[in-house]
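Hey, I'm writing a tutorial for new members on how sequence and structure tokens pair up, and I'd like a real worked example in the thread rather than a made-up one. If someone can provide the structure for the chain below, I'll link this post from the tutorial.
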Amino acid sequence: MTLLELILVMVILSTVLAMAAPSLRGFFTSRRTEDAAAQILALTQLARSQAICEGIIYRLNFDTQQRTYWLTSQQAGTFEKLKTGMGQVYTLPKDIEMELDGIQEDGNDKFLAFTPHGTVTAGTVRLIDRRGQAMEVTCPTATESFSIVEGTRIYGQYVSQ
């Protein structure tokens, strides 16, 4: 190979990378939204199974202002954070907003409740990225499991795809 051929290959590679870079930026943003939705889904599954196994009520709590969520369990009549690794407070990335539909409220507390009987609060946690794409962690009825559904904004409302 000559030096000229090597330079030509480098120019072609840099041109292709420059054209692909803008589309990759959107890929990583959507991955963060999907990862956050998967994490919330995992917490719902853990809370439901622990509530059934231990015979106590679990809650998945939300703070929409701080964009945080965490698990608590009922201990001696009050709800306390879990003392395991899953008991930490999780924060959404700064470019993701959270909307709650059908979530229980008790004063300022917003939460999904998981009972020892296997029932849950039917509701939706919607995560919206800066492009307006939404991922929903949703449970339509008290006896079903949560699942992740992609949503699209139509006339100001998010509709499941």
